[in-house]
Design a protein that fits this description.
Helices cover 71% and strands 2% of the residues. Strand 3 (459-460) and strand 4 (469-470) form a beta hairpin. It is mainly α. The relative contact order is 0.18. Strands 1-2 form a two-stranded antiparallel ribbon. It has 19 helices and four strands. The longest helix has 35 residues, at 59-93. The chain starts with a helix and ends with a strand. Helix 5 (99-107) runs antiparallel to helix 9 (199-226). It has two domains: 20-55, no CATH class; 68-112 and 206-456, no CATH class.
Length: 473
C-alpha cells in the first residue's frame, strides 16, 4: 500500500420523517408518552412487514449499498490526493527521509479509527437518549434513563456484540467446523471475557497478523525498489497488483473467469504503463543512472504480487459473507479488522524498527520542524480515511474492482498537480488516463451485479437499554 497511500454509518436517503421503516430500525425512536403496549406491538408488526416487503423487492437496500460504494470511492480518491501531496511536500520541502518510519506511523496507528468510531457513536447515542429523557419520553421497551455512564457503556458493549456476531459469521465461512455460539443475531455475550477469549476473535487476530505482514512487506519492497530502479518502473510494476489480484481471485475466491474483466484490468494497467513511461522526457539515461535497475524491478514485482495477494486474502479471510450480512455491518467490520491490523503492525514492525535503531544499523529520526510535524499528522489522517474507505470498498465489492479503482488515483493526482502546481500533462499521459478510465468503466460494467446486489436486512443488537431492531442497510 506504500505508493497508493503516499498516496459510519450511512443515513437513510428515503427518510424524510418518522416512517414505519426507520421507526422499526432506529434505536433512538421514541414512543408517545402514555401509549398502550398493544399499540406498540401493532406498530412493530406493521413496521416489520413493511421492512420485509422492501427487502424482498430489493430496491431500497440495493440503492443504499450503491450509495455506500460511491461515498467510499469518493473519500478514497480525495484522501489519496491529499496524502500524496502532503507526503511529497514532506520529502521535498522539509527534507524528511524516513519512509519506513512514515509507513510505521501510518499502518501502526490504524487502531485509532475503531476507537474513535465506537466512542463517538456511544457518546452521540447517549446524548440523544439523555435529551429524550429530559423531554419525558419513554423508550420502546419501557427502559428508563439510568445515567450517562451506563448509557455510554451499554452502547459500547452493543457495538462490540455486533462485531462479535459478525466475527462468528466470518469464522464460520472459512472454517466449517466452527460452531456459532449465538445463532440469534440479537443475542450475544454478557461479559467481555467471552468476547476476548472467543475462538472467533482469535481467528480474526491470526488473519489480521498474517495480512499485516503481507501488507508491510509489500510496502517495504516499494521503498527498497525506489532506491534501485526508476520511479516509472516502480510505479508501473507495483500497480500490476490489480492484475495479480484478479489472477489470485479466480482460485482463492472461486471467481469465474471473464474476458471482459480480464481485458478491463489489462487495459487499466496498460494505461499506468503509458503514464509512467511516456509522461516524462528524461528516460534516456535511466539505465546508466540505475545500475541495479533489474534487481529493483524484481523486488517491486514481488511487492506487486504480495499486494494483490493481500487484497484477495483480506476478502477471503476477513470479510463476512454478504449474503447474510448487511452493507452497513460489512463496512463497520472492516474498520474493526483495520484496527487489528494496526495493532499487529504496531508491535511487529515496531519491534523490528527498535532492533534496527538500537543495533546501530539505522537511526530513525523524527522531524522537529513544526510544519513538518503538521504534514505528518495530516498525512496520517488522510491515510486512515483512505485505508478505511479502501477496505470498505473491498468488503462491499471485490478486491479486483477496488484495486482497479485505486488506479484512478493516478489520474486524480495528475489533474490536481496540473491545476494547482502547474505540472503539464502530456498527450501521452492523457491517453494513459483514458485507458485507465476505459478499464475501470468496463470492469464496473462487468461487476455491476456484485455492486448492486440486493442487500440483506440482518438483525443487530442495539443498546442494552433500548430496543432490538433491524439494520438500516
Amino acid at each position: 500500500m506504500a505508493n497508493r497511500e503516499t498516496s459510519r454509518l450511512a443515513p437513510d436517503p428515503n427518510s424524510s420523517g418518522m416512517t414505519f421503516s426507520n421507526y422499526h430500525s432506529d434505536p433512538n425512536v421514541l414512543s408517545i408518552p402514555n401509549s398502550n403496549s398493544r399499540d406498540r406491538r401493532d406498530s412493530n408488526i406493521t413496521s416489520t412487514s413493511i421492512s420485509t416487503s422492501i427487502n424482498h423487492e430489493g430496491y431500497e437496500f440495493s440503492y443504499l449499498k450503491i450509495i455506500f460504494v460511491i461515498v467510499l470511492f469518493i473519500i478514497s480518491m480525495i484522501t489519496f490526493v491529499s496524502q500524496t501531496e502532503l507526503t511529497s511536500l514532506l520529502f521535498t520541502n522539509y527534507g524528511f527521509d524516513e519512509p519506513i518510519l512514515l509507513l510505521y506511523l501510518n499502518h501502526g496507528s490504524w487502531w485509532v479509527l475503531w476507537v474513535v468510531q465506537f466512542v463517538s457513536i456511544a457518546l452521540l447515542k447517549s446524548f440523544k437518549r439523555y435529551l429524550n429523557h429530559i423531554k419525558g419520553y419513554d423508550e420502546l421497551n419501557g427502559k428508563r434513563w439510568k445515567g450517562f455512564r451506563k448509557a455510554f457503556a451499554s452502547s459500547v458493549k452493543a457495538q462490540h456484540q455486533n462485531i462479535f456476531h459478525t466475527a462468528e459469521l466470518t469464522t464460520k465461512a472459512n472454517n466449517s467446523n466452527y460452531q456459532i455460539i449465538y445463532n440469534d443475531s440479537t443475542k450475544s455475550f454478557k461479559n467481555y471475557s467471552t468476547f476476548f477469549k472467543s475462538e472467533a476473535l482469535l481467528y480474526m487476530i491470526k488473519m489480521s497478523v498474517l495480512l499485516s505482514i503481507i501488507l508491510n512487506v509489500a510496502g517495504v519492497t516499494w521503498f527498497i525498489a525506489m532506491g534501485l530502479s526508476t520511479g516509472s518502473d516502480v510505479t508501473a510494476i507495483y500497480n500490476c497488483s490489480a492484475f495479480t489480484a484478479y489472477v489470485f481471485a479466480i482460485p482463492i475466491l472461486k471467481e469465474k473467469f471473464s474476458w471482459i474483466k480480464a481485458n478491463s484490468v489489462i487495459t487499466a494497467v496498460a494505461g499506468v504503463f503509458v503514464v509512467a513511461y511516456m509522461g516524462s522526457s528524461n528516460q534516456s539515461n535511466d539505465a546508466n543512472n540505475y545500475p541495479y535497475r533489474l534487481m529493483g524491478n524484481l523486488i517491486i514485482l514481488v511487492g506487486a504480487i504480495l499486494y494483490g495477494l493481500y487484497e484477495v486474502f483480506y476478502k477471503k479471510w476477513c470479510c463476512p459473507p454478504s449474503e447474510i450480512v448487511s452493507a452497513r455491518r460489512q463496512a463497520t467490520f472492516s474498520n474493526f479488522v483495520m484496527c487489528l491490523m494496526g495493532i499487529s503492525t504496531f508491535f511487529l514492525l515496531g519491534i523490528g524498527m527498535l532492533t534496527v535503531h538500537f543495533s546501530g544499523l539505522h537511526h530513525f529520526k523524527i522531524p522537529t520542524n513544526s510544519k513538518a510535524i503538521l504534514c505528518i499528522v495530516l498525512s496520517l489522517i488522510s491515510n486512515h480515511l483512505f485505508s478505511v474507505s479502501f477496505l470498505g470498498l473491498m468488503s462491499l465489492t471485490s478486491p479486483v474492482l477496488s484495486s482497479v479503482a485505486s488506479l484512478l488515483t493516478i489520474l486524480v493526482v495528475g489533474v490536481f498537480e496540473w491545476t494547482f502546481r502547474g505540472i503539464i500533462i502530456t498527450f501521452a499521459q492523457l491517453f494513459g488516463y483514458l485507458l485507465i478510465i476505459i478499464g475501470f468503466s468496463l470492469l464496473s460494467y462487468a461487476s455491476w451485479n456484485e455492486i448492486s446486489k440486493e442487500d440483506v436486512d440482518d438483525g443487530y443488537i442495539t443498546d442494552a437499554e433500548s430496543t432490538y431492531s433491524a439494520s438500516l442497510a
